[in-house]
Amino acid sequence: MLTSREKHMRRAMRNRNKLRKTAEGKLRLSVARSGKNISAQVIDDEKGITLASASTLEADVRKGLKSTSTIEAAEKVGKAVAERAKKAGVEEVVFDRGGFVFHGRVKALADAAREGGLKF
Fold first, then answer.
1. What is the pLDDT of residue 34?
2. Pairing of strands 93-96, 38-44
3. What is the pLDDT of residues 4-61, one digit of tens each?
4. Are 22 and 41 in contact (CB under 8 A)?
5. Where are the domains of the chain?
6. Which of 1, 52, 93, 100 could be stapled to 29 by a disulfide with Cβ–Cβ 3.0 to 4.6 Å?
7. SS (H, E, C) the chain
8. pTM above 0.90?
């Protein structure tokens, strides 16, 4: 019997393997979500480096938020990561939701990143 963490990791790898097949060299916007925080990174898998990141753990993102575990916080992270990615010269990415359902905070982050100028 698999633990919930093992099931999550299987879903994440299944999603990531599908992305690798269709990504065609694009960078990956990866999302990590916990009960209290959410973070996103733009990753170049070929070079193994992170080009841009944002998280509710950062003071400038957290400023003005009542809670770091809300949809509002996820939107702020999405806008911040899109802005930082644009500064790094990134315009097009593939969205890696990990093992999370594309709903709620994950969807809010993706929509805000699209509004910020990232294409996926």
1. 96
2. unpaired
3. 999 999 999 999 999 988 888 899 999 999 999 999 999 998 999 999 999 999 999 9
4. no
5. 4-115
6. 93
7. CCCHHHHHHHHHHHHHHHHHHHHCCCEEEEEEECCCCEEEEEEECCCCEEEEEEECCCHHHHCCCCCCCCHHHHHHHHHHHHHHHHHCCCCEEEEECCCCCCCCHHHHHHHHHHHCCCEC
8. yes
Q: Which two tokens stand for residue 37?
A: 């925080």
The token duo for 120 is 């996926």
The one-letter amino acid at 105:
R
Class of domain 4-115: alpha beta
The residue with tokens 């698999």 is: 2
Taking only the tens place, the pLDDT of each residue in 84-107 is: 999 999 999 999 999 999 999 999
